[in-house]
Task: inverse folding
C-alpha cells in the first residue's frame, strides 16, 4: 500500500516535472514544426503576458468526451501589442480557435499563428505590414 | 567694395560653411522599425499571421496561416548570401544546425535571454531606438533590451577593454559627411554573425550608417573574421522611422518568462 502510494506520488511528480520541462524547453522556433499549422478549438484557462514569450493555457476537447490542456506559446508582449493584443485581450472562459504549429516532441505545446474569436475577430501574430 | 572686404567676406562664408558642416551631422535619434529584419540570408522569410484587414477583400474567409516563424534551423542549407565560413566554422555551423533540426534550443542565445550580440543585434526585429549626442550614439534593441554605445569623442579602447570582450563589443565612430562610420572590436565568440553562423573572438565589424532617404536609415555592415570567414561578409540593414502612435518600444524583461518556466 505504502509502496503503491510512493509509486503514484513519483508518477505525479514526474508528470509535473515533465510538463514544466516541456514548457521551459521551448522559447525557440526550432522546438516547433513551423511549416505546419493546425487548428485547436477550446476555452482559455490562463493568459500569461510574459517575456520573452507569452503563454496561452487552454482546454481542448480530446475527442473522447474528455478535456485536455494545451500550452500555446505566443510572441513577446511588445510585438503582440503592436498586433492588437493586450494583457486583457484573452480572459479565462473565452471560447477561441487557435491556429498553431505543433511541438516537434509531440507534447501538448504549440506556437501560436493566430487566435480567432467566435465573432470572427482575429488576433494575428504580427503587426500589419511586418 | 575693396579687395580686402571681398576677401574678408569670402573667408567669412567659407569659415561659416565649414563650421556648419563640421558641427551639424544628421540626427539619427528616434524609434525605428526594421524593413528587412531577417534579411535575405535570414533563413526563409517573415512570419505568416493573418494579413492585415485592409489587404483582405471584405466578406472573404481568411486564408489558412501557413507558417508561424522563419525556418531558422538550417534544414534548407545555407543561403547564397550567407557568410562564407572556413571549414572549421562550417563544421561548427553544421553541428548547431543538426541539433536545431532535432529541436534542441540550447544554441539559441536570445531564447535564453542573452544579448543578440553584434552584428546580429542590428536586425532589430522588434524595433530600435537611437539616442544621439555629440560624443556618443546609443542603439537600443527592444529584443532582449540589448544596448550598444558608439563613442564619438575620439577615445580608443584600452587593453583592459580588449581583454574583456562583450556581446555588443566596443564601438568607436566618426562622421564622414552625413555618414556615421563605426568600428567594433572586443566581441565574445559565443554569439552569431547572423542565422546561427558562428564566429571567432577575432571578429570585427565595420559599419557605415546614413539616411538614404527621408526617415529611412541604412546600415552597411562589413564583418571581418580571419579565422571564421573565407572573405569579409557584407550585409545591408534598413530601418524606417516609426510612425506617430507606433513610436514607443516596450520593456522586454526577458528573464521574467524564463523564471516562470523554471
Result:
Amino acid at each position: 500500500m505504502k509502496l503503491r502510494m510512493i509509486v503514484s506520488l513519483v508518477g505525479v511528480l514526474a508528470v509535473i516535472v515533465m510538463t514544466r520541462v516541456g514548457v521551459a524547453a521551448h522559447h525557440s522556433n526550432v522546438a516547433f514544426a513551423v511549416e505546419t499549422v493546425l487548428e485547436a478549438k477550446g476555452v482559455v484557462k490562463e493568459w500569461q503576458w510574459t517575456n520573452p514569450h507569452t503563454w496561452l493555457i487552454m482546454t481542448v476537447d480530446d475527442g473522447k468526451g474528455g478535456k485536455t490542456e494545451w500550452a500555446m506559446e505566443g510572441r513577446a508582449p511588445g510585438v503582440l501589442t503592436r498586433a492588437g493584443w493586450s494583457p486583457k485581450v484573452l480572459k479565462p472562459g473565452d471560447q477561441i480557435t487557435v491556429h498553431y504549429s505543433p511541438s516537434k516532441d509531440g507534447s501538448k505545446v504549440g506556437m501560436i499563428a493566430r487566435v480567432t474569436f467566435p465573432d470572427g475577430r482575429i488576433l494575428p501574430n504580427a503587426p500589419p505590414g511586418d | 567694395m575693396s579687395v580686402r572686404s571681398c576677401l574678408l567676406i569670402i573667408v567669412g562664408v567659407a569659415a561659416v560653411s565649414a563650421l556648419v558642416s563640421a558641427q551639424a551631422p544628421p540626427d539619427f535619434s528616434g524609434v525605428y522599425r526594421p524593413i528587412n529584419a531577417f534579411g535575405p540570408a535570414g533563413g526563409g522569410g517573415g512570419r505568416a499571421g493573418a494579413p492585415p484587414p485592409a489587404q483582405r477583400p471584405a466578406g472573404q474567409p481568411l486564408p489558412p496561416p501557413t507558417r508561424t516563424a522563419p525556418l531558422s534551423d538550417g534544414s534548407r542549407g545555407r543561403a547564397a548570401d550567407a557568410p562564407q565560413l572556413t571549414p572549421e566554422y562550417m563544421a561548427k555551423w553544421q553541428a548547431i544546425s543538426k541539433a536545431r533540426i532535432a529541436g534542441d534550443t540550447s544554441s539559441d542565445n536570445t531564447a535564453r535571454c542573452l544579448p543578440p550580440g553584434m552584428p546580429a543585434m542590428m536586425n532589430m526585429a522588434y524595433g530600435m531606438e537611437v539616442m544621439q549626442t555629440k560624443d556618443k550614439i546609443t542603439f537600443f534593441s527592444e529584443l532582449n533590451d540589448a544596448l550598444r554605445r558608439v563613442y564619438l569623442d575620439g577615445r580608443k579602447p584600452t587593453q583592459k577593454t580588449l581583454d574583456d570582450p562583450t556581446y555588443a563589443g566596443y564601438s568607436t565612430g566618426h562622421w564622414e559627411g552625413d555618414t556615421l562610420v563605426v568600428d567594433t572590436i572586443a566581441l565574445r565568440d559565443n554569439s552569431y554573425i547572423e542565422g546561427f553562423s558562428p564566429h571567432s573572438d577575432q571578429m570585427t565589424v565595420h559599419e557605415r550608417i546614413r539616411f538614404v532617404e527621408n526617415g529611412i536609415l541604412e546600415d552597411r555592415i562589413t564583418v571581418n573574421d580571419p579565422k571564421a570567414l573565407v572573405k569579409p561578409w557584407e550585409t545591408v540593414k534598413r530601418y524606417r522611422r516609426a510612425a506617430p502612435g507606433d513610436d514607443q518600444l516596450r520593456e522586454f524583461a526577458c528573464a521574467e518568462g524564463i523564471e516562470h518556466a523554471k
